[in-house]
Specification:
Length: 425
């Protein structure tokens, strides 16, 4: 499919605005990283515990921090925009201390913002098996005939309903639509359980040693990917092509990480996966352009390099728009509708696709032109040096004319000619 036919856009003639934009983004990202002391690593890399809490009515973040500080927990509390969720993070600790701190968070928040149990089971904090065990005898006493498999299926259906509603059942009457919850079962549920106003919907615990190891392996994975692609492209094309492609990909990675720092976003394992995806994506886009440049070099040997690269970019324009455009739409859908878990991954993809697409043209290609002009400037003086040397030598004075001897004179005269003697009869 060709969206564009016979286009003749002067891409390289507009390279300086994009190069300046890249320099600004790179400088801003590096300054942000320096001010913040490096990237903001997630729990995956720095180690610690991450607890996601959802509230029926979310309290102010300051109150949540005050409750945790009173328990001696130096926790980082963040709001999830558009939801009633808070993410509570605890820095590096030993594994046993992390587990104890997690339980302290749960108990502290329940005591401060939850409802008193009054001897009932918290349906927002219990599992399916605990709910089934709690209801088994009361259902028998209420003359509700239900076998153990039916009871377990009903308890699992209640847990599925809770999961579909952000991990929180706000009113027990809402369970009327759940399979197996008859009016008599609902009456027993109200007698034996209650819906608390908060729930722990996710917990992630990573030890500090594992976090440091994951951080080291993530950096090595990106560097190995860049090095392997440099070797491949140098073998497939020429070393300068490989160097230009790797510089462009490194440029994409640095800008993407800088944008994460500017927007104060965490770098987690999923973000590293996105960065590795971008390394391959951007490299593939650059190789397609370079491959067309190599083909055109064989056909148009006398053409200058800059017009030839412009022609190659125009010839691959349809392919670039189709692949980059469709991939960008997919990444945007993940960013807008993928939720908190995929937010960092999709943000890296959106930024990387935009930056990687223009870097293939406005970063990698100018490097080839710069190297070509550099080689030509080195060849030019050596080729013109002999001609320049000849033009700087002073011309020799002409030899004086020999005096004429009288016609028919029998005498012979001697005349100096350029340092020698000649006899004239």
């Amino acid at each position: 499919m060709e969206l564009f036919r016979n286009t003749n856009f002067d891409f390289l003639g507009k390279k300086w605005p994009f190069i300046i934009l890249s320099l600004i983004l790179t400088a801003a990202g590096l300054v942000s990283l320096a001010v913040r002391g490096g990237p903001r690593y997630g729990i995956d890399f720095r180690g610690g515990a991450l607890v996601t809490v959802t509230f029926a009515q979310r309290p102010p973040v300051d109150k949540v921090r005050a409750v945790l500080d009173a328990k001696g927990l130096n926790a980082d509390v963040q709001e999830i925009q558009g939801k009633q969720d808070d993410i509570i993070g605890i820095e590096q600790r030993e594994d046993k201390a992390l587990q104890a701190a997690r339980q302290t968070i749960v108990d502290s928040l329940t005591a401060a913002f939850g409802q008193p149990a009054n001897g009932k089971l918290n349906i927002n904090g219990a599992g399916a098996s605990a709910l089934a065990d709690r209801l088994r005898v009361p259902l028998q006493q209420a003359s509700v005939s239900m076998t153990d498999p039916q009871l377990n299926d009903m308890a699992n259906a209640v847990m599925d309903y809770r999961k579909q509603h952000s991990g929180l059942i706000r009113n027990l009457d809402d369970l009327r639509s759940v399979a197996g919850v008859t009016p008599k079962v609902l009456e027993v549920l109200k007698q034996q359980t209650y819906p608390d106003t908060l729930a722990i919907v996710a917990t992630e615990v990573v030890g500090p040693k594992i976090g440091a190891e994951l951080q080291r392996k993530a950096v090595l994975a990106v560097l190995y990917a860049l090095g392997g692609m440099l070797v491949y492209i140098a073998f497939r094309f020429e070393w300068i092509y490989g160097l230009a492609a790797v510089i462009a990909v490194f440029h994409d990675t640095i800008i993407t990480i800088g944008l994460f720092s500017l927007f104060n976003k965490e770098i987690s394992l999923t973000v590293v996966a996105a960065l590795l995806t971008l390394v391959g994506y951007s490299m593939n886009d650059t190789i397609v352009t370079f491959d067309r440049v190599r083909e055109n070099l064989k056909i148009m040997r006398r053409e200058k390099l800059e017009p030839l690269i412009n022609l190659s970019v125009n010839q691959t324009l349809s392919r670039t728009v189709l692949t980059s455009g469709l991939t960008l739409l997919t990444a945007l859908a993940l960013f807008l509708f993928g939720g908190q878990v995929l937010n960092g991954f999709s943000f890296a993809l959106v930024c990387g696709i935009i930056v990687g697409t223009y870097s293939s043209v406005f970063v990698a290609s100018p490097i080839l032109i710069f190297w070509h002009n550099f080689l030509e400037s080195r060849k030019h003086p050596s080729a013109t040096a002999p001609a320049a040397a000849k033009s700087t030598v002073a011309p020799k004075a002409p030899a004086p004319a020999a005096p004429k001897s009288p016609a028919g004179s029998p005498k012979a005269s001697k005349q100096n000619v350029r340092g020698g003697t000649a006899k004239v009869k």
